[in-house]
Amino acid sequence: MTGLRVGVLMWLSIAAALLAAPAGAGAQEYPTKPVELIVPFVPGGGTDLIARLASDYLTKKWGQPVLVVNKPGGGGVAGARAALKDARPDGYTALVDIHTTSSMLIGAWKVPPLTLADRKYAGRIVLDPMVFVVKTDAPWRDFKELTAWVKEDPTRLVWGSVGPAGPSRYAANDWFAQVGIETAKTKMVITEGAADSITKLAGGHLTLAIHSVAEAHALTQAGKIRALAVLAPKRVRYLPQVPTAEEQGVMKGVNVHWWAGIALASAVPDAVVKKWEATLAEMVKDPEFLAKADRISMNIDYLSAAQLRAFVEKEAGFYTDLAGRIGIRK
């Protein structure tokens, strides 16, 4: 009986200690081991670039390695599923979530492979305009000339899209709808990310690529590709020489943006998500982080977890409507 009493007393002591522990103590200690930050595309694109900047900051801030893991495939779905569905929901696997794997995916599918219910947001980091780019030796002097050329014979246009429901596809179809080009007569080539797409463009396998300013800026400045138009209300500071699509009288309004934020699986504890959110809020104000982002032409535009969810819900509604209108909703 003495041994039994000792055992009971021991378990009661443990229970009392657990009850006395401050709420959220686990989250305060988090992370206690390396964290994987999944990029659902190949290295070199905008998603990968912002992931590596965030990884550097988080590693220093938390004192634990935050490792960027590239898992391309399925237009970003493979990597997003790995982070949100397959990984243990303990906060040690996070996703660099973008429009392609969230709002655009939801817009393109009646029964999407991933929904907003599958994730908890920690915050948005970047919001970047899209830019239409061609080879340096392309014959068109501006976006208006390219548009006229495509309208003459749409079958000549070969353009790239990161996955079947990526920003390139929505931006291209918005363009087609506004100027009267038959989408079905053009040829879309699926690429594994911006780096793959721009390589194909430079190699002559694509006529046109549509990517974020950050993704296209370096090669544009190096003279490897040429930007014809930017989808923004006004010219952007990283490409001041490039007129907007509306400025050239081709398109009206700005409907498609490139953005990136952090998402975790829906079952990850709220306290852990809040730690991510608080750290991201500090990160986007850090002078060193901002200087590094500026060097790669990243437009930092933070939204909190709640703000990002509201933004994505609204954007998903827009893309659902757009996908239906241009005939790409399945």
Assign an overall shape. globular
Number of strands: 11
Q: What would the average pLDDT be, to the nearest integer? A: 89
Strand content: 15-25%
Structural class: alpha/beta
What is the strand arrangement across the widest sheet? 2-1-3-10-4-11
Query: First CA to last CA: what distance?
Result: 69 Å
SSE series: HHEHEHEHEEHEHEHEHEEHHEH
Give Rg in angstroms. Answer: 23 Å
Question: What is the helix tally?
Answer: 12
Unreliable runs: 6-25
Major beta sheet summary:
6 strands, mixed
Please bin the fraction of helical residues. Answer: 40-55%
Walk me through the structure:
With 330 residues, the protein is of the alpha/beta class. The chain has helices at 2-20, 25-29, 46-62, 77-86, 103-108, 143-152, 167-179, 194-202, 213-221, 270-283, 287-295, 305-326; strands spanning 35-39, 66-70, 93-98, 119-128, 130-135, 158-162, 187-191, 209-212, 225-231, 258-265, 300-303. Helices cover 43% and strands 20% of the residues. The longest helix has 22 residues, at 305-326. The protein has a 6-stranded mixed sheet, sandwiched between helices. The chain has a 3-stranded antiparallel sheet with strand order 8-5-9, sandwiched between helices. The termini are far apart. The protein contains 12 helices and 11 strands. Helix 7 (167-179) crosses helix 12.
